[in-house]
Amino acid sequence: MTRRTVRIAMNGVTGRMGYRQHLVRSVLSLREQGGLDLGDGTTLWPEPILLGRREHALRAMAERHGIEHWSTDLDAVLADPSVDIYFDSQVTAARETALKAAIAAGKHIYCEKPTATSLDGALELARLATAAGVKHGVVQDKLFLPGLLKLKRLIDGGFFGRILSVRGEFGYWVFEGDWQSAQRPSWNYRSQDGGGIVADMFPHWEYLLHELFGRVRTVQTLATTHIPQRWDEKDKPYDATADDAAYGVFELEGGAVAQINSSWAVRVNRDELVEFQVDGTHGSAVAGLRNCRVQHRSATPKPVWNPDLPATESFRDQWQEVPDNGDFDNGFKVQWELFLRHVVLDEPWQWDLLAGARGVQLAELGLASSAQGRRFEVPELTL
């Protein structure tokens, strides 16, 4: 077995998502399993180079995981010809400039979303990367979650018949930070720093709807800030200027309608932090991050509305669990493996910077819809 090294500059891995999902559970997990078997007698060995602004944090992380290389000098790392891939999970406001520098240096690009703070910026990144001839990808992790993979299996198998509607519920209570610490960084709640639940979650909803049900044709949104004051990491109060909840309606190609509520100011009364109910002429399903339940039309009961009597049936018990029928690896890791194979073997890849721009477009139109109180058409993007 021949071992081939791929060097990956990883910027922003001192953050929660970059550290836990991308460094530890993806790249380092690949190393723990002995590398990525390419199937041709070659094992791909990922070698991370940690990038960031806080030297002490990078040094401690490198020592903790036995990583040899780290740096606070982005330009120097990008100038190194041995670096193959630049990965970015920084705060959104810093991403666009760094990605442009990496593209100019001829590095392949893999990054978190949103890819930029505006549609113009996101499209420019896609055009620059395409013109430079570098391979580029955007993290679209929820496509690889067990519950949604089961949902995709149902769709591909024709379980639903004609899909009528999609109802999504996402969110949880993020503490304000005064009497209990917040679970999310304070910049998420400042619009001037690129925060807001629309900017954060609408890119997710775009690729999920696009990949599973059809392209989003129209969007109508009400975005709001339910909690106007929060406390930051230094226990100081600040004004929350970004939206912390959004209620969206999306018309999809093919005629289905999707309604998705996103909120960091909601207490969870569902089985998982995100759930999607899909209703079709032949059956329905409820899918979360890991589980998926179905009810076929042949097994659908006939409830009768009678507000004068208590319900005697357990509606949840009338649904059937979809079996795993296989093993599910970490969704971030699975997409990393696919991107590395795309870079090294030129295998097919569809989640590029143009796909990332569609997510930015939907967020931008969602905010405009909320501000103007009207529905917007979503133009199809091309380079």
Q: Mind telling me the C-alpha Rg?
A: 22 Å
Strand content: 25-35%
Number of helices: 9
CATH class of the largest domain: Alpha Beta
The CATH architecture name of the largest domain reads: 2-Layer Sandwich
Helix content: 25-40%
The coarse overall form would be globular
**Count of domain modules:** 2
CATH topology of the largest domain: Dihydrodipicolinate Reductase, domain 2
Would you kindly provide a brief summary of this structure?
The chain is α/β, with parallel strands linked by helices. Helices cover 32% and strands 25% of the residues.
What does this structure look like?
This protein folds into two domains: 2-141 and 331-349, 3-Layer(aba) Sandwich (Rossmann fold), CATH 3.40.50.720; 142-329 and 361-376, Dihydrodipicolinate Reductase, domain 2. It is globular, with a radius of gyration of 22 Å. Helix 5 (119-132) links the parallel strand 6 and strand 7 (136-138). Strands 17-16-15-14-8-13-12-9-18 form a nine-stranded mixed sheet. Strands 1, 2, 3, 4, 5, 6 and 7 form a seven-stranded mixed sheet that branches. Strands 10-11 form a two-stranded antiparallel ribbon. The protein has helices at 16-32, 55-65, 74-78, 92-104, 119-132, 146-156, 197-212, 331-345, 353-372, and strands at 2-11, 36-37, 42-51, 69-71, 85-88, 108-111, 136-138, 163-171, 216-224, 229-231, 237-239, 245-252, 257-263, 274-280, 283-287, 292-296, 320-321, 376-377. It is 32% helix and 25% strand. The mean pLDDT is 96. Helix 1 (16-32) crosses helix 8. It has nine helices and 18 strands. By secondary structure, the protein is of the alpha/beta class.
